[in-house]
Amino acid sequence: MDVTNEPPESILCARIDYVDGDLTERQRLIKSVLDVCKSDPGLDGMRFKDDLKLLEQAVCWCTLMVMDIKQLRHLNERIHSNDQAGCYLNLIDSLRHAGELVYWFGRDPTKPWDQGRIVIRNEAEKNKAIMRDQGLCVTTHSPADEACHIVPLWTLKWHYTMKTTLISWMTLLGPYTVAYVKNSFMSQDRNRENRVAESNIVDKCCNMICLSGQMRRCWEKGLFTFEPVGYCRRNKGAGEVSELSSMLSSTSISDSTATTAHTNSMPSTQEATVKARTPDVNDDEASDLFNEGRRLQKSDIDVGKEYGIVLRVRWLLKTTTLSSLMDSAPPLDIDPQDLQESWEELYEELEGFSVLPKNGEVIRIWAQYPQELPNWTALELRWTALRIHCLSGRANPEIYNPGYNDADEQFTIDMADYYCVKDDKVALEELLARTDAYMCPD
């Protein structure tokens, strides 16, 4: 991987506008959708002042600009169909709650909470991620400072409250992604302890990526993320092997160009040596997985292979003409690149950082077991949320704070628990007393 102590400008042909290559089609679809929303007679009587205001704000432009192009095409088809009214309401609902998605990933994950349930990190899963990534930063290949969560760990504090918002992202994310997020990031065992379910992956190694101290700080500020590109595979034992201290061994490592670029920059105290093997002739066998840009399916798995996820490093330039999602949207025909800060302005925020990957660089993370690879949907969520955030000027995410609190969370838990306790007289009375106090406070 190429690294630099210069501004992390793009490698040749790398996108920097954070939208699909065909900007013209996206702009046409957005105009088509908004024309119907604002003036089609079929929606007369459904347009309220606050709804129309949302359609004129940056939140609408940013959300539609980063929406998956297939999802945007589907939205355009629905808004011109017999499902027009439902589509309109779904879109408005997504726009109302887009700020909450930004808050998930824009909020400093190290900032403490004074409310919510206590969440203790799973050290065993953290160690799995460290071993998978060889104890090295996946971008710079310098010693890792932390195994950073993709979907923030703090989201485990507010499972039930956040779950009520999830359905609002249906238009933006699509029904399959919403269902996956619900089952994988918000699932809990249905019992009186309301424990995090085993199927919940928020604190699993697949929701973690190892980063150096410098890159971790950039990650926490939302200055960069990874765009999931696809998957790759190779014969087990092919490629490169990293030998770490006896306390740390792994079956995965970033691609060989990254290894070559960073080996000489490692401190002498780092107990790591990297050896490169001759790549197997079948290393690129599954180019279809790489190119299709899709999640790995069970049918893709061959037990004789080891699998990797292919990610693209994305430095996120913010717009300079917008200050929040609530600002007025720019003209629909404008190119986002014309509104973005320069690489030099971004570099001012990175001053003093000695080793930075370039925008658009491709990395591979390998794992012995596919389920231990960084999770595709988690990466997509962060990639989507931070593009919305940067296109709207990267405001202090606290302005999008939905105000999670213990009382709301407990009420939502009680509603979910009703059928679990309805035959337990004492528990039911306690539940009803809490809900009455919540609904009718003194």
Shape: globular
| Overall residue-averaged pLDDT value | 81
Number of strands: 9
Low-confidence stretches: 241-288
- Euclidean distance between termini CA atoms: 62 Å
The radius of gyration over CA amounts to 23 Å
* Strand order, largest beta sheet: 4-7-9
How large is the share of residues in beta strands? 5-15%
Structural class: alpha+beta
The percent range for helix content is: 25-40%
Sheet having the most strands: 3 strands, antiparallel
Q: What's the SSE pattern? A: EHHHHHHHEHHHEHEEHEHEHEEHHH
InterPro entries: HNH_nuc (IPR003615)
Region (Disordered): 255-277
Domain HNH nuclease: 137-227
Protein name: HNH nuclease domain-containing protein
List the helices and strands and how they pair.
Layout: E1 3-4, H1 23-39, H2 49-56, H3 58-66, H4 69-79, H5 84-96, H6 98-106, H7 123-132, E2 146-149, H8 159-166, H9 170-173, H10 175-185, E3 208-211, H11 213-221, E4 224-235, E5 240-244, H12 256-262, E6 272-276, H13 287-292, E7 305-315, H14 343-349, E8 356-357, E9 362-367, H15 376-391, H16 406-421, H17 425-439
Antiparallel strand pairs: 1-8, 2-3, 4-7, 5-6, 7-9
Helix pairs in contact: 1-4, 3-15, 6-15, 16-17
Question: Can you walk through the features of this model?
Answer:
With 442 residues, this protein is α+β, with helices and mostly antiparallel strands. Among the domains are: 3-15 and 102-224 and 316-358 and 373-400, no CATH class; 406-439, no CATH class. The protein has 17 helices and nine strands. The strands form four sheets. The chain has a three-stranded antiparallel sheet with strand order 4-7-9. The chain starts with a strand and ends with a helix.
